[in-house]
Write a structure and sequence with these properties.
single chain, Trna Endonuclease, Chain: A, domain 1, globular
Length: about 180
């Protein structure tokens, strides 16, 4: 990992720790997210991907949100965590990509198909607040109706194999 990515990651962790210093529940969820990532990254053997997805679909939704933000930090991005959980389909966090600027992040822990309305609403948020891009990350299934909202937007969908590459292998390069 390049030195700039390491510095960015450390800065992200330090600044967010300071911002969340009066939010014990939030800090606890971030710590749990790191523990879950360590656990997932230690797994090996056949059927690893379905096993990981099944596990992620059972994780608390707020911890799943923190898992994704922590994985983005692990990729060397600066992550700006919200100090409150929105619970309303809003932006769950932001990530700074050195070549692309600020990117809004929305995380959904689904067990079934993704709601196309959630994707449409997030695309509108990204456009309204003029983010360079948006990452819609989910653990569910992507139906055909979902893709019509991706074509004319600046959204990138991360699920399935792409989600596991982000979480397990810390790979982000193919997303932009």
């Amino acid at each position: 990992m390049p030195l700039s990515s390491i510095v960015c990651r450390l800065a992200s962790r330090c600044i967010n720790a300071w911002r969340l210093r009066h939010r014990p529940r939030h800090r606890n969820n971030v710590a749990k997210s790191r523990a879950v990532l360590r656990q997932l990254r230690s797994w090996d053997g056949p059927y690893l991907n379905p096993r990981c997805i099944a596990f992620l679909r059972k994780v608390d939704p707020l911890i799943f949100e923190e898992i994704v933000l922590t994985a983005l930090e692990d990729c060397g991005l600066f992550v700006w965590r919200n100090v409150r959980y929105t619970g309303d389909g809003g932006i769950d966090g932001k990530a700074w990509h050195p070549h692309h600027g600020w990117c809004a992040v929305q995380v959904k822990r689904y067990c079934q198909h993704v709601s196309a309305d959630h994707v449409r609403e997030f695309a509108e948020l990204v456009a309204t607040y003029r983010y360079h891009a948006g990452l819609f990350v989910h653990s569910g299934r992507s139906g055909a109706a979902l893709y019509q909202h991706l074509g004319n937007s600046r959204l990138t969908l991360i699920s399935g194999e792409r989600l596991l590459e982000l979480l397990l292998q810390r790979q982000l390069g193919h997303l932009w």
